[in-house]
Design goal:
9 helices, alpha/beta, about 35% helix, Rossmann fold, nine-stranded mixed β-sheet
Length: about 270
């Protein structure tokens, strides 16, 4: 009976893809991750100021709009700053005006609407610094979310008993997060920095080896997503961001393209080729 149930589940996921997978708000990303399973660990990585936090927050916004509960561990940003950024992003107003108190009347109207809508959506923010895997596990069991975001890996606390190398430290953290995802049947997104070695190359596109300074992240991750913006290196190339699936246990290793609005600090739509 158990084998029959497993086979029927695999059959249903194969012939009814639209009912499964993940709803990120971007059709191309959903297609690439159409076979993703609960229990997965997804790493989102980029160099600083490229947009990994904006990408993660855009995903979270789209998840909660689809009645999925999210838990966001904001190790770098305070709860208040995170909420302010989320409100501005949801309202699609200038992040700069929001943070410098230069709001226009139309901005306030949009923020009022965003506040009302976000207040009815299901998400939790935890801004405790230097979290341990055990603390994340306890909060996950308490909140029972569908999706978890850890922002970001290099700010997590060293696990007890791990005193050898950075590689060992991050390996144990990632292994612990993967176990939480699997045990709870949820999807965890982990944000990560990249090695500075990328800046020494002519081609600035990230590759999996750019993660290895922090342990075998790609080995434990089910999916590794790199974000690359050519405009970071060439100001003449603006707007388009490469979403690079460098590892994908559930499908193709492929690149898709999204448009990023610097003004509202948000990924807004996919590029139609």
């Amino acid at each position: 009976m158990k084998n029959k149930e497993i086979l029927e589940k695999a059959y249903n996921k194969t012939v009814n893809k639209n009912e499964y997978g993940i709803k990120t708000g971007f059709e191309s990303v959903d297609m690439i991750l159409s076979d993703i399973e609960n229990g997965s660990l997804i790493t989102i990585a980029s160099r600083r100021s490229i947009g990994k936090k904006a990408f993660a927050m855009t995903l979270m916004e789209n998840f909660i709009k689809n009645n999925k509960k999210c838990l966001y561990f904001s190790l770098e940003t305070s709860e208040e700053q995170f909420a302010k950024r989320l409100l501005a992003q949801y309202a699609e107003i200038s992040l700069s005006r929001s943070f410098t108190n230069r709001l226009r009347d139309v901005d306030i109207v949009k923020l009022d609407s965003a506040l009302q809508e976000l207040s009815g959506l299901d998400f939790d923010i935890c801004d405790k610094t230097y979290l341990t895997v055990d603390e994340i596990e306890n909060r996950v069991y308490e909140c029972d979310p569908d999706y978890v975001f850890v922002d970001y890996l290099q700010l997590m606390s060293i696990p007890d008993g791990v005193t050898v190398t950075r590689v060992d430290i991050f390996y144990e953290i990632m292994k612990g997060l993967k176990n939480i995802a699997k045990d709870k049947g949820i999807i965890i997104f982990v944000l990560s920095q990249l090695s500075k070695a990328i800046e020494t190359r002519k081609d600035k596109h990230p590759i999996l080896s750019d993660l290895r300074e922090f342990g075998l992240i790609e080995e434990i991750s089910d999916v590794v997503i790199f974000i690359h913006k050519e405009e970071y290196y060439d100001p003449n190339k603006r707007g388009e961001s490469e979403i690079i699936f460098a590892k994908n246990k559930f499908g193709s290793v492929i690149t898709t393209y999204l448009l990023f609005s610097l003004v509202i600090d948000k990924f807004v739509q996919q590029v139609i080729s």
